[in-house]
């Protein structure tokens, strides 16, 4: 029986809140008496392996890695987009957390951009420092897997 999968072995993907990874296998596993197909994903951050049921891929918001055409637009927004500096830090933290949870590269890039700009003006609190580090790691892990990316494009996010 042939099954049509959303992703194939070798596909580069992004798992929100975990970063980018590569699908290494599709395996059938029995867990708690239930047998189902799982994607086996090798994550770039933390050298971790994740297994996700094939039927839950859409609800998990996993997506393909951004392509080079979309990346050029994201770089432009990263370098020239406006930051909302009027929010209180708790409100800003919630907005930024929600953006990171989407798994969208542009949203993550905006969080990194805004927190990097703030860091140049004042010391970030511990929560925002950690958020900046995590968001930058997620962003960098995806950049590593984009086909055709140049070192200059990668450096534009630093």
UniProtKB/TrEMBL annotation:
Pfam families in the record: CarD_C (PF21095), CarD_TRCF_RID (PF02559)
Signal peptide: none
InterPro entries per the UniProt record, alphabetical: CarD-like/TRCF_RID (IPR003711), CarD-like/TRCF_RID_sf (IPR036101), CarD-like_C (IPR042215), CarD-like_regulator (IPR052531), CarD_C (IPR048792)
BP GO terms, sorted: rRNA transcription
Transmembrane regions listed in the UniProt entry: none
Domain CarD-like/TRCF RNAP-interacting: 6-116
PANTHER family: RNA POLYMERASE-BINDING TRANSCRIPTION FACTOR CARD, TRANSCRIPTION FACTOR YDEB-RELATED
Entry protein name: CarD family transcriptional regulator
Origin species: Salipaludibacillus aurantiacus
